Each structure stands twice: as C-alpha cells, then as structure tokens.
Amino acid sequence: MADEFQDERIFGTFDAFTQLKTLQDKLLNARYNINEGMSDEEHSERSVTFQKFTSMLDAYQEQSYLLDPYLEQLVAPVVEVLKDYVKTSIANPTDKGDTWHAHRTANMLYCYVKFRGYKTIVRFFPHEIADLSMALEFMLIPHGIVETHWHWPVRYVMLLWLYIICLIPFDLAQFDETDQIGQTAKTLESVAKTYIGAAGLEKEAAALLLSRLYIRKDTGAGFHNFVEEARSFLQTTTDDLFKAIGLLKVLCEVVKSGSAEQVQDELPTLRSIATIIQETTTYANNTIIRKLRSKLISRVGLRLLPTSSGNIKRQARTLIADEVSDEHGGYQEEIEVPDEIEDILEQTLAALQDRDTVVRWSAAKGVARIAQRLPKDFAGQVLETVMGLFEIHSVAAASLYDLPAIAEGTWHGACLACAEFARRSLVEPGHLPQLIGWLSKALYFDLRKGAHSIGSNVRDAAAYVLWALARTQDQTALIPHATNLAQRLTAVALYDREIHIRRAASAAFQEHVGRTSLFPHGIDVLGKTDFYAVSIRKHAFLVAAPQVSEHVEYRKFLLDHLLDVVLRHWDLSMRELGSQSLRLIITINLHVLAPRAIEKSVKLLESLDSTDVHGGLTALSEIALAYKEDKSDPSALEGHLRSIFRHLKHVDANTLTTTRNELIASAACRLIANSITVTEINLGARSSVPGWKKIVDNGLKHRIALLIVELKRGPSVMQQGLARLLGVINYNTHPKSLPEAIDYLLDTVKPTTKANIETRRSCFVAIPQILTLIAPQLTSLLSSDVLNTLLDAMLAGLDDYTLDERGDVGSWVRIACIQGLTTISELLFGVGGSIPDFESYFSPQKYHAVATGLLKQGVERLDNVRQTAGVCVVRLLNAPLPLVDGSERWRLPALDLLNELFQNPSDQSGWNDGNWLFPRGMRLLEVPQYRKDVLSGIVISIGSKTDSTQKPVANSLVKFAQGLPLVRGPASSYSLLELVADLISHAKSNMTSNAVVVPVFQTFTILLEADVLRQLPSEPSGLQSLKTLVHMTTKNIDKLKSVQRIHESMKIFVNVLSFEEIRSEKLSLLSDFLTHPFPKACLFIVAGAGAVRSDTAEYLYILLQSADLGLETDAIEDILLETEWATGDRQVATEAAKEVIQLFTS
C-alpha cells in the first residue's frame, strides 16, 4: 500500500449552496414541447448540467451533514415539481408529458437520498392523507411512466412517497368503497410486491413500503400470509436472488419494528426460513442473503427477550473518568430466557466466522444486542464463548504467524463482537485480562498470503475494541493493564504497515488518554503520535518513533517490537524503514541498547526464512552506521565495527550466492560497506569473514540486473543514467550481466522505441565503451552474431534524423554513432590478431559499410556533423589493417583517392568548410562503392536552409555534373545519365517521405536551371528519365498536402517544358498547377510564398522570358500577367490555363 496520501478537502460550511441551487433551478425549469421534441444540443446541455449538479453533491459526500440547514430549500422545490407532474398525469393519463423532465427530477431526488439517506429526505415529501390516493393512482396508470424500465428513479421515489404516507396513523379503510373494504391496503401491497423482486433500487423502497404496511395495526394481519409466501418461495425457487433479498428485507424490518406478538406468532416459520437459507446452496453462497439471515435471526432473538434487563445502561462514563451509576444499576431483573435463544446465539456465533465482513459485522451487533438483554451471568457466558473463537485456530499454531489464512475471518468476527460488547458495557472486570491478552495478539495479526498479506481488518477491529473499552470501562479495572495497552497501541500506531491501522491505534490511545489518564506521559506521547503524525509511514518510523522512545516506559518495548515484528515483516520497505528507525532509537543510549539489538539481530541471521535473514542484515548494517555516527569514543569504533562485521559469518554462504536471493546479497553488501575496516581488508584470507569479497562480487552481479529492471521503467533521466552506467561496468568480473546490458541497449536504440533522444544517444555512447572494456576477452564474452548486431544498430543510428522544437536532435545520435563506429573499427583492428575467426566478427563488407556511412555524414548539411565525420574518416585512413590473413581485403576502396582528397598536407582545411569540402566530396561519386550513400548525403545538404551549406554544395554539384560525359566511356567512371538515374532511383524508393523527395526535386531544379541536363533528350534513356521525372512530379499533385513539395514539383515541370520532346507530350499537365486547389501556400513552410497558381504563372513567365522555345510567347505572357491567379475564382484560372495551353500548341 502506498504510504503517501493526500487528504480529501475538509469543508467547514456548505459554500456551494448558491451554485447548487442555480443548477437545480435550471434543471427544474428546463422543459420542452413534446410535439417539437428536443434537439441534441439541448439534450447534451441538460446532461452536462445534471453532471455538474451530481459532481457538486459528490464533493460534499463525506460531510453530508453540512447540507442539513439547506435541505428543505433544496428538496422541497424538487418534490413539488414531481408532485405537479403526478397531478397532470392523473388528470390526463394518456398524455405522459415531458417524461424525461420527470425522470431527471426524480433522479435529483434520488441523488439527495443517496447523499443524505432516505430517512432524512422523506421528511420533505408530501405526507398528507389526501396524497395517498394521488400517489397510488399514479402508480396504477396503464402504460404509464413507471412501467418504462429506464425510468427507475420515478418508481423508486414514488414508492418512498407511499412509504412515508403509510407512516401516518390513519385508517386505510376510509379510502375504500363500501363494498370493497380493504381494497386500498391490498392495492398498496400489490404495488409493493410488484417491485419486491426488482434488480434495482425499487426493491429497497418496495421492502420499506411492505414492512410499513405489515407493521400498521389495520393491515398487520397480512403479515402471516406474507411470511408463508416467503417461506414457500424460498423453499421452491432458488434462481431469483433479487426477490429473495427483497423478501428478507421486509422480514427484517417487520421483526425489528413490528409488535412482539407478530414475531412470536410467526417464530417457527421465521426460524424455518433461516434454516432453508442455510441449507440452500444458492442462497448460502450469496453474501447479502447471508447478512440478512444473520440480521433476521438476531432480531428474532431480540423480540423474544424483554427490552429491559440489568445489563442495559448499567453505567455510563464521562471524560473526567468518573463513574455515574444508572438508577437501575443495582437492580437485576429476573427473566426467563426462552429455549430458542440458545439456538439463535449458536447460529449468530457461527455467522461471526463468515467469510464476508458484512455478515460478521451484522452478527457481531446481533450477538451483543441479545447479550445486552440477558442476565449478567448469561451475558458473561456469551462473552466467554466469543473469546473462545480466538482459540479455534490457535491450539495447533506454534505462534501467531503460523495461523491458517481462514483464521482471519474468525478473529475479525470475534474482535467485532468484543467491540460491541465493550460499547454496551458488557465486559466485566474479570474478563479484562483474558480479553486484553487476545487483543494484544490481534493487534499484530498480519499473515502472508501469496504476494500480499491479510489481517489488517483484524488489527483495525482490535483497535476498535480498545477504543470502546476506554469509553465504558471503570478506571480502576484498567489500571493493571494501562502500561501494557499504552505500549502496544503506541507500537501499532507507529509501526503498522497500513495507514488506517496506525490512525485507529492512535485514536484508541487518544481515547484512553482523554478518559482514563492512565497511560504514561499520555499527553506528550499523544502529541507525537496524533492523527497526522502517523499518517505518513516514513514520518511515523523516523520521526515520531524516536521521539516516543525518549520516554523510558516505551523505549524497550518499541525496540523489541522492531526486532521481533518489523524486521521480520514480509514487506521489504517495512524492514528497511524499521532498521533505520532502530538506528535512531539506539542512538538515545547506544552503549546499552546496541548490544541488545545486535544480540537479537544475530538470531535472525540463523533463521531459515530469507525474510528474517534480510531483516537481521539490515539491522546490523544500521547499527554499524550508528556506531560510525557516534563520536563519543572514537578509539572503540573499530572494535565495534569488527564485532558487527564478524556476525556476517552466521549467514550460510549458499544463501548469499543462490539465485533469487538478491535482497539478501544486497543487504550483505550494505553491511560490509558499513562495517568493514582497514584491518579486515588487510587480513585478506585470514579475515573473520574470508568470503566477503565473493559476497561483494555476487551482490554487484545482482545489483546490475536489478538496476536494469528498475531504471528502464523510470523517467528519462534515470534511463540516461542507466545507459552511462552500463558503459563503465567491469564486465570482465561480472560477465553474466553483459547479455542483460546489451539486450537493454539494443532494445532502447530500436527505431520503434519510446526512449527520448538523449537516452538513445547515451546508449550509442555506451556500446563502444563496453566493447573497449571487454576487448581483452572479446571472444569469450561476446559472440560474432552479437557483435554484428551491435554494429548494425550503430549503422542504423547514422540514419536518425529526429526533429523537435530544438531542431535536428537526431544529429546527436549520428555524431555518437560516427565516433562509436570509428572507435570500434580501430579497436577490432587492434585485437584482430588474437581473434581466431576475425572475419565473422568484423567482415570487410561491414568495415566498408562503416566507412561509407562516415563519408555520407561527411557531406551532409550540419557543419559539426561533417567536422566529426571528417576527423573520424582521417582516423580510419590512418588505421593499420588487422594482423590477419588476407588483410588487404579490409583496405578501403579508392584509398589513394581518399588520401589525395583529404590528407594532402598542402591543402588542409576543416570539413565544416563547405567551400573546401563539397568539391572534394563530389569526387567520391566516381567510386561505385561510395556513390549511393554519398549522393544521398549531398542531396540532404542541397535541401539545407543554411546558405553556407546549400550554396557551396549546389555550385559544386553543377560544376561536377557539367564535367560529366553524357554516356560513360572507357576513360570515365561516371556519366550524367547515371547521375540522373541515381537521383530518380533515390526519390522513387522514398516517395512517401517528403524529407527525401523534396531535396531530390530541389537538386533537379538546380541542374535544370543551370541547363546541365540539356543533352538528355539526345539519348533514349535520357528522354525516358525526363518523362519519369515529369510523372513523379505530377502524379496526384492535387492531393498532396506539402506545399513545399508542390512548389518544387512545379519548378521541375515548368523547367522541362523547355524540352520540346516533353512539351509536346506533357503540356496538358500544366493546368494541374495553374488551377491547383491549393490557392494559398503555407507561409511557415515556404517563406513569402504566394498562391501556387500565381507562383506557377510567374515561374513560367520567367522561363518564357529567359529561354528560347522556338515559338511566339507574347500572348501567353499577357495572359500570365493579366490573370488574377491567386485571388480570382478557380473557374477563371481554369479558362486562362486552357488558353495558355492552346496558345502553346497553336
């Protein structure tokens, strides 16, 4: 259970009255004409208003009494609106009117009933005699609103209304016709019985109405028939649980409030009903029916006994602990206890052991109420029987923690019953020692069951008993038990796991302090353990507990409780907090308390239970820390630490090294860290714990695995820290942690991961660090497949172009991968001679892929990425080849060219200088192995928005392309046709990615504007490339959403119109741009862009002005200038585009 909590807001007054009244009035006045209907907007508005109404009430649910002064003002108007609807419906039964308004009105009344309880709200219902016929007639309207199943609030409220009317003491016969005496009563009974088996709340109201009818003197005769019908139904029908529940509710109400004669007359039948329920499996398995059965039999027992006896109000208590004897205090009435009481008590006591809390709670109240009406001796015997329930499962159990899980229900029921006895002053002083003895154990009832524990309800009920004893017991009777109770309640208030138990124990302590003044230092301790002080577990353990321990009366008990209970608790956090609390307590008197704590902690180390061992280790670790913090005797510090350290040998070595004992290994490591001394380290194998180094190594192994599990689910900062940590761990001494570390790193750098960019960068940085650390034992720790998987992940990282509001943050990953791949390559080349099958670890193809990836990054758009890539490329050029057979295969392609371009001593500059780099980078396109990746990098640079990058790369590409032959010859390694084909292929393979297609189109625009591609149509393949380019730029152009891509496509298409071979075939596609449905360009995509149509017209006009197309273009130019392309109607643009195309072809 999470200990941190946030208390609900505490209200002082009902501040929302005005707002609630406004919402209510709005709902009450919201009507609509049934003939016109209600729009969806109106319906939605009223639904939202009603939700606000219910939410406002819900906010005050825990303090519903605050509405009491306003209830009449709130409830009465709602009731009146509903009453008006009832009158209207009776006047015209065929006109249902605004049914949903009636439904919502009734629902508002239900909300008030839910909020404050039906007993409070029905007081505001109309309850005049004349209202009976009106309400009853409304319920009997044929096909009325009450017969529609979704209008359940109306049925519920109307049944409550009938119920409150029936409370009025008048004869129902006055509503009967002369020849139909009793008809009104029969009609009421029939209406109630109609809904007694409903699945909804109507059943509750119907049960109230029926019970009120049978309690009335003029209609009580019908109870006999009802009881017989109920018995017959329960005996013959087992599949209608709702009706069974409704029938039992009626019986319980009548037995509670009806006359004693009624109950006694039906006693055999009522008892047989209880027997039927017990023997019918379907009923016995239903919690609500079992609760109602318990309530029924206990109430039957109450009606068999007189309402006054010597046990009732024998004494009362005041806050000043004085006893006020009742006027009948010395009087003991002699009564004859019916024989049936014994059987009823036996059944009620059995219900105390039920598996469900509500049944036990009902039985506890029932047995205490019956005992209250019995003679003192008889009541004492009942209490002894209740206390005997504690012994049922305790006989065979060696200790409290050995009890079976089923004992929880028995102990809880017994505690609840004892609390009810105590509340009614039925606990005699002679029973106190035995009762307090059992309660002392119940306060610690905490049994492990699977992954959780049971028993919090037992501890809560035990605190409730002690609270009740403080209110009713004589002060002199509590004196012998005061100190014991004070110590136990304080221990539970401070050290229980659950917040509500700590608060319950604190409340019981407070009650004793206020009413008895017997607890040692009661006021002072109460101030340290009040409601708020114990609400936060950490505060209770580490602040309140040491403060209470300053009092000698509590110190030893709290210390023992920590060592015997808390340090053995199943919850890890409890043991760890308990050990810290132990350290704070023993510092009060370290030299006296520490030896005792050490003695008990050492005994825990010898236990077979790993929980006990862990608790003992954490305790010794904190005790060692306490000695370190104590400055009173520095000379004795080493002796104390060595003494504590020596106790580590009590822990079995197998326990520390066995799998799934990570907690013990961790605690042992902490103990070593806190208690080891220089002397023990220097003794080496002669140390008092020779295997302590092995324990540390084993603990580190577990810790690494635990860290990966914990931190990978933590926030991004923790994940970054984990990645950095994994990069510096010494895997040579912890080889078993290496696979887990690598798996985590690979999972985190996957493209589909949710890890942020910083975490991925840290992971890429960690991979080469790990390989560097394990290089001496590479083949023994890492397989070739795993190494190649790591290299593939690093190569994939070179394609990370993640963008966010900070810009190209993917460059952080690319830089980390550039540096990492270079480091790994140098590392593997360096140890290549010691790797038997070096090629399987680092093949020539993989190395060449690394070099190619670095060269691609070397010609990309960001200066810092290019500079980093350049430095790393030079490192690879200077790296010696691996000392393996056939090492020449690892030599980089065109190595001489690379050295000439990038290692010329007379012409050196930084790779971040575009004017120096890009002319050299274009030469790399001559090398087939580098061409595809380098061209991709160049295209990305052309798409850059930075002039210092875009202009140099564009100029360099144009100059390089101008120097290429159209077709490759014997003396050339590349051609213009191949360049165009490569660009088209690059775009085709990424047509759905604007980040790739747009820069490719920009590259073609640069080449076309520079007239580099003029010779293409002379070759068939060149002409086909131009046609393919046109197809790529015009396909689905009207459906594209990227305005930048539309503009770049337009520029290419307009430029290729200068080729007559293309213009004659593709000219009709010009209208797609001149009439494009995107009239306005997005300024945040293309700065300063106007309309797509106007930009097309302008670009075409410029082309016509600058290029000789071999035709007269004056008329075309006039149309382009005179047409309002951007702001005009699209139809105008369409007509103008047709004219332009016609003039081109004429």
UniProtKB/TrEMBL annotation:
Occurrences of domain Tubulin-folding cofactor D C-terminal (ranges): 849-1045
Keywords: Chaperone
Domain Tubulin-folding cofactor D ARM repeats span(s) in chain numbering: 322-523
Gene Ontology BP terms: microtubule cytoskeleton organization; post-chaperonin tubulin folding pathway; tubulin complex assembly
InterPro entries reported for this sequence: ARM-like (IPR011989), ARM-type_fold (IPR016024), ARM_TBCD_2nd (IPR058033), TBCD (IPR033162), TBCD_C (IPR022577)
Chaperone listed as a keyword: yes
Signal peptide range: none
Highest rank taxon of the organism: Eukaryota
GO MF term (any one): GTPase activator activity
UniProt keyword annotation of Hydrolase present: no
PANTHER family: BETA-TUBULIN COFACTOR D, TUBULIN-SPECIFIC CHAPERONE D
Name under which the protein is recorded: Uncharacterized protein
Protein source organism: Psilocybe cyanescens
